[in-house]
Amino acid sequence: MLEIRDLEAGYGGVMALAGVTLSVAAGEFVSVVGPNGAGKTTLFKTVSGTVAARAGSIRFEGQDLLAVPAHQRPHLGIAHVPEGRQVFPSLSVEENLQMGAFTEAGRRDWAANIEYIYRLFPILLERRRQLAGTLSGGQQQMVAIARGLASSPKLLLLDEPSMGLAPTVADQIFDAVVEIRRARNLTVVLVEQRAVEALESCDRGYVLETGRVVLSGGQNELLSDDRIRKAYLGM
């Protein structure tokens, strides 16, 4: 579904991605882990089009994604849930979800999607008329994920969904992501610093350091790798 080859991207004179190559098959759950500054967020921004690629290629379902303007990429089936949640604070919960349903598929599937979202996150049903900016951090993260789901995506890009959340709330978010993948048969790419949870949830993973892929493999392969265990699992 997603094929990235020799991707380079950055900001000003800083190179954030230096020849990144990775692939994601339809229906896969792929995690990308690594330290701060590794280029994980830049990777997602380059896929969604908010950061321009300097070199390399990105293909989505065989189509040259770099030839598609950023505002058109959601209509192909790509939903990017950014780090830091970034809800529309002055809009209600349900209005935030309606903003996510601007794609043709999202408008078509609105009734089924909103039913699923409220079943997945019952608190959002209770708070549907509340301003999103007044919600707790965990509830805002639920809104951000649900807003992505409202577009009826084929590919869900989740950037640091546990950021700034208490461990118990972060666990709830991870459980929801696993449930979404199972129930919706979505292709999910997760960027996350909580390497244990990210790798335990995925089919395959990539380790990014200083803009380069330094390790990749299946879940068990990465979890048993001594370099991963030492650097990310504290073992």
TrEMBL record:
Alphabetical list of Gene3D superfamilies matching this protein: P-loop containing nucleotide triphosphate hydrolases (3.40.50.300)
GO BP: L-amino acid transport
Residues of the ABC transporter domain: 2-235
Record keyword Nucleotide-binding present: yes
Pfam family, one: ABC_tran
Keywords: Amino-acid transport, ATP-binding, Nucleotide-binding, Transport
SMART domains per the UniProt record, alphabetical: AAA (SM00382)
GO MF annotation, one: branched-chain amino acid transmembrane transporter activity
InterPro entries: AAA+_ATPase, ABC_transporter-like_ATP-bd, ABC_transporter-like_CS, BCAA_Transport_ATP-bd_LivF, P-loop_NTPase
Origin superkingdom: Bacteria
Family label: Belongs to the ABC transporter superfamily.
Record PANTHER family: HIGH-AFFINITY BRANCHED-CHAIN AMINO ACID TRANSPORT ATP-BINDING PROTEIN LIVF
Name of the protein: Leucine/isoleucine/valine transporter ATP-binding subunit
Organism listed in the record: Prosthecodimorpha hirschii
